[in-house]
Every structure is written in C-alpha cells, then in structure tokens.
C-alpha cells in the first residue's frame, strides 16, 4: 500500500528492473509502502499491479527497450535505479551452451550495463543519484555447476565497484545487494528446494534495498550480504 503520510522515501522516484515477481516485486511493494514512486519493468508486466507503481515492458538485453524505459523513468523524475533483473543456469562447465552463456551474461551483465548507462547522464546532471545492484552472495565465490551464473555475478560485482569509483566525483552512490537463497521463481534448478520455506523472502531483500535507498545523504552503503539462517555459511 502506498503511504500518503510521509514514508522515508516520500518524494523519491525509483526505477526497478525485473519488477514483475520475486525480489523485484517485493522491492516495488516495499519502496511504494515507504512513499516512493516506482517505475517497474519486466518483459511481461501483464496483470502486475501495485499502488504507487507504474509497470512498463522492459527487456534489459535490448538497448532500444532499455532506452524507452529510461526515457519514461527520466520523465517521472527518477533519482535511483535498482538493477534486479536476472536469470540463472546451473550446469557443469562441459554442458554450458553458447545460448546459455548469452542468456545469462546478456541479462545479468549486459542488462546491468545498458540500464545503468541509460540513466547515468541524468544522475550526473542531478548531481546525485543511487544505483543498487542485486547481485548475489555468490558474486565472490563459486561452486560446482555455478560457473556461468557466478561468472555473471562476479562480473556484475566488478561493474558495481568500478561504477562506484567513477560516480564518486558527481555524488553517485552505488550499492551491491548480495542475497543468499531467496524463495522466488528463480533458477533452472531444484537445488535446496526442500528448505525453501526457510529461505529469505523477497521482502527481506527488499529491506536491504530500502536500507541503502533511505541512508542519509552523507552515507554510502557499499554492500549488504544477507543469508537465511538455514543456509550454511560455506555453501
Ligand atoms: O528471480 P525471479 P529473483 N529483462 O525469476 C525479470 C538474484 N538472486 O527475484 O522479464 C527484464 O523470481 C523477470 O520478469 P520477465 C538474481 O540473480 C536471486 O529470484 O517477465 N526483466 C522477473 O520479473 C536476480 O538478479 C537469488 O521474465 C527480466 C525477474 O526478472 C535477482 O536476484 C539468490 C529479464 C526475475 O524474477 C532477482 O531474482 C541470489 C529481462 N531480460 C541472487 N529477464 C534467489 N532467488 O535465490 C528476467 O543470490 N527478467
């Protein structure tokens, strides 16, 4: 429910990718509940509704689609971007196809680059702005069958950290959100399915995004790493 009585994000306008379900929809609900106006995008936004949010079609792998979405976000007065759209394929190295590679890298890495690039001049002109990238707890470690997905998340982490350095001069604040297992529609694997009830919920990750976006203007939250208690630290 969109708060009319002054939530902590009153007056803020946030663009969220991958907003139709899972973590992205949880972020939309959390931010609008705190008074933000949200522009949410995903390839299929039919039937997605949240008071305080506008949902637009967006394919983050397609520069023309990204530019059209960014234009609407700029018109709405966007001051923050949450790069959340992502996909996962989990296979041993010997089974990874070129199509798998392009789907995962294009969505997770190219998508983050295109979407960010489209809004940076606007944030630069504003002299402020925030970029929050939802990567993963595996953006700095890997595991068997994780080669492709973790390669994409390591790359997203690198983009996030380089962007923080580049944007520092004009007041851009950049945050990496690194969730462990989250109960969503994500992934091409049933791994760990039996524990799903105990995984993080989208709202837990949305809380970390809210923490970054609501930090005082002189505070930069560089990264947030969060896990469900049930997930082994070394997993
Ligand atoms: O996934 P899911 P999550 N252009 O499948 C959209 C990371 N993460 O919420 O386009 C635009 O429920 C898709 O909509 P549609 C993960 O790597 C997760 O779990 O219509 N949007 C939907 O709205 C990812 O970066 C876990 O198919 C595109 C959304 O993305 C982020 O969390 C653990 C798109 C995906 O919803 C959100 O994933 C972790 C495109 N080309 C990190 N392709 C976890 N769940 O356990 C997809 O460490 N979308």
Automatic annotation (TrEMBL):
CDD domains: SDR_c (cd05233). SUPFAM superfamilies: NAD(P)-binding Rossmann-fold domains. The keyword RNA-binding does not apply. This is SDR family oxidoreductase. InterPro entries: NAD(P)-bd_dom_sf, SDR_fam. It is an enzyme of class 1 (oxidoreductase). Belongs to the short-chain dehydrogenases/reductases (SDR) family. Its EC number is 1.-.-.-. The keyword Ubl conjugation does not apply.
């Amino acid at each position: 429910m969109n708060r009319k009585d002054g939530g902590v994000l009153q007056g803020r306008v946030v663009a969220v990718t991958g907003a139709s379900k899972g973590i992205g929809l949880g972020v939309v609900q959390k931010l609008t509940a705190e008074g933000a106006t949200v522009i949410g995008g995903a390839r299929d936004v039919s039937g997605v509704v949240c008071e305080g949010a506008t949902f637009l079609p967006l394919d983050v792998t397609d520069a023309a689609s990204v530019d059209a979405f960014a234009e609407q976000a700029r018109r709405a007065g966007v001051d923050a971007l949450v790069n959340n759209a992502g996909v996962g394929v989990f296979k041993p190295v010997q089974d990874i196809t070129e199509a798998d590679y392009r789907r995962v890298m294009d969505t997770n890495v190219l998508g983050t680059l295109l979407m960010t690039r489209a809004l940076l001049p606007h944030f630069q002109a504003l002299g402020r702005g925030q970029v929050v990238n939802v990567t993963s707890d595996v953006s700095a470690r890997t595991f068997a069958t994780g080669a492709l997905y973790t390669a994409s998340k390591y790359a997203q982490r690198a983009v996030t950290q380089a962007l923080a350095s580049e944007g520092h001069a004009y007041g851009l604040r950049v945050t990496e959100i690194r969730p462990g297992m989250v109960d969503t529609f994500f992934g091409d694997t049933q791994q760990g399915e039996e524990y799903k009830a105990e995984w993080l919920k989208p709202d837990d990750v949305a809380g970390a995004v809210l923490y970054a976006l609501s930090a005082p203007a002189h505070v930069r939250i560089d990264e947030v790493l969060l896990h469900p208690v049930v997930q082994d630290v070394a997993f």
